[in-house]
Structures are given as C-alpha cells and as structure tokens.
Amino acid sequence: MSDKPKAELTQNKLTHASFLQGFLGTLVAVFKDKGVLLMLVIAPIIYGFFYPWPYRSEVVKEIPVGIVDYDRSTLSKTISRYSDASPNLSVQPFASEQQALEAMYQDQIAGYLIIPKNLESDVYAGKPTHVSVLGNNSYFLLNKQVQMGFTTAIGTVSAGVEIKRDVAQGTYIKTAMAGTQAVPLRIDPLFNKTEGYGAYVVPAVAILILQQTLLMGTALLIGTWHENKKQHASLLGWLGRILALGTVTFSVACFYYGWVFSFQNYPRGHNILGTLVFMAIYAPTVATLGCFLGMWFKERERSMQIMIFSSLPMFFLSGYPWPVSQLPTPLQYVRWIFPSTSGMNASVQLNQMGASLANVSGYLYHLLALWALAFTLLIWIQHRQVRPKTNSH
C-alpha cells in the first residue's frame, strides 16, 4: 500500500470511538480551546449580567411631556396638575402646539396634551368636547406610558366633574361617587406583576442566547477538529460529544434559572422540575444541530460569520414577541426549523407561568423530533465525507 492511501486512512480514523471518549474528550477540548470556552461559558455568563441591566427599572417613569393649554381655566389647570402628579409623567407647559411639536422633534418631550379653548364652559354646559394626546410612536414603550399617564389624570378629573354635577342636582355624594363607575375595574397582572419590559423580554431572550452561543461554540469546536482531521467519531462517540456540550450549556442554564432571574426579580420557579426536564431536552438538541453545522461548515470561523446575524430573525419568528397568525404563511412553517421556537415558549410557560409538562408537550415533542433529524443529518454528513476517500481505495 502506498503512502497516500495510508495517509487517507489516518485521516478517516475515529477520534472518539466510545461514549466515554467522546464525553471526556469534548469536555477537555472545550476548556482547552479559549475561543470555544469564551463562547460556551464566558459569553452567556456575561450576557446574564449585562443584558438585563438596561431594563432594571422595568417601568419607564418621569417621562418628559408637554401640555398646550388654550383654555387657561380652573379645569384645565386641574388637568395639568393631575398629569404632573402622575409618576409616569414630568409635565412642562407650552404656549402653542407648534412649540410642543418642535420640542418633540428635538426629543425634548415624548408627547403632549392639547387642551382646547372653552373646555371648561363646554363641559359644564354638557356640550361634547375632548382633549387630544399626541405621542411619538417611534418609541412604543414611552408612548404607552404617556397615553396611560394622561388617560389616568383626565379620567380622575372627569370623575370629579361628574360627581360635582350630580351633587349640584341633588344627588347624595356617596351615590354620585358610586355612579361614576358602576362596575369597578381592577387589573391584576398574573405573570408579569410589574408589567415591565425586562420581565417580558429577558426570560425569552435568555433561551435564545443559550442557543446561539451553544450553536456557535459547538460549530467552532467541530470546525477546529475538521481542520485538524479529528472530526470523525462513532455513533456512541457522537452521543458522548453531544452530552458533554449539552451538559455545559445545561449548567449555564441553571445559572440563569437559579441566579439571574432571581437577582433581577423576574417571575421564576413556578415549575422548576419541568423547566429542568425541558432544558435536558433543549440543550442536547441545540448541541446536535451545532455538531451538524460544524461538520457542514468545515472551517472554524465560518459558523460565527453565518450565524451571528440570525438571532433577531429567530426571535421574531418564534411567535413570542409577535402573534404567529400575523406572520406570512410560509414563515409560520419556516419558524419550526429553529429550536428556539419551542425553546422560548416552553421555557417561559414552565418557569414564569407555572405550566405543566403536559401543557408544553407539543414543544417538547418538536425538540425531540429536531434532535432525531439533526443527529441523522450529522451521521449522514460524516458518512458522506468519509465515503469518497474509502471508495478511492
């Protein structure tokens, strides 16, 4: 046999022939490779500290707004005073709507209220009238709080006007007060008590962070092995590799569930056992997909070049931030290619909402199906890479 066939046989030799070799060899490789260690362990931990940080305040308060008061009456001054008393708003007066509009263009205010002329006289005369709230919809969180702050203030003033009018007509004051809201409304948020943006977005994005770092870190490692002709393994060897990579991310996920969400005071721990079962399925599924991508890309840096821009589309396709029914029909099917589609929804329902495993069983079955598909593709692509060299002999 010539030297060339011997060299080709050496290239096709299995690096990890047994489950234990795959498991231990992968763990050693992860902690020896600084780039892989950074991606799989250090980056998720850094994200856990710094990604939630901008949302620490949860609810936006003291938003600068303007009031254009053309009426200058006692009623209009009461509206201005109640608006400024709102914790959501910090009010400043403007002489005209044009001045308020220019201030909004310059980002000095996030919106403004227009009180029309003759408001007080029209209200007490029983004539139809209204005030206008205008906001910058480019910042939907600010705009929501602006509208809520003005609506609450105007609603309170309007109730007071109705009570005074009824009392003036001879109605007993307690009856008049009850009549302003015949059916009292009480809003009790179930799963996001603060109604904050951080508690809404961080728990879901955390799962996407774990997925993306695991995908890129795994593909980085397999790409390195491919460049060094050490990528091949037996079925058991691949299972050992997958378990090792999944164990690393499972441990980081426990750091998220056990510390990050607690430190940030997000809803958590409603079904912790179910959450751990979910992660025990999710992490190996993502690791298997990462192994397949590493074998496919073949080069160490290729995975980061391609996958680093995929996080945002995956987030919006997941059905978490945007109703699935509003997505174009083809995208409603494409979204199931990504583990994060089931991962984000299952994790939030289990950990934040207290759902049972039965409630999220569809997501778990999807992840198991993805794992089987990714593992089949992984073995197929290894066989395809080995076969031409074997047939040449």
Description:
The protein has 2 domains: 3-55 and 195-391, no CATH class; 63-179, abc type-2 transporter like fold, CATH 3.40.1710. It is elongated and about 95 Å long. The protein has 393 residues and is mainly alpha-helical. The chain has helices at 3-11, 19-32, 34-50, 74-85, 97-105, 119-124, 140-168, 173-179, 197-227, 235-263, 272-297, 302-307, 311-317, 329-334, 339-352, 361-391, and strands at residues 63-69, 89-94, 111-115, 132-135. The protein has a 4-stranded mixed beta sheet with strand order 2-1-3-4.
Strands in their spatial order, largest beta sheet = 2-1-3-4
- Assembly context of the chains: single chain
The parts where pLDDT drops under 50 for at least 5 residues are 1-11
Termini separation comes to 10 Å
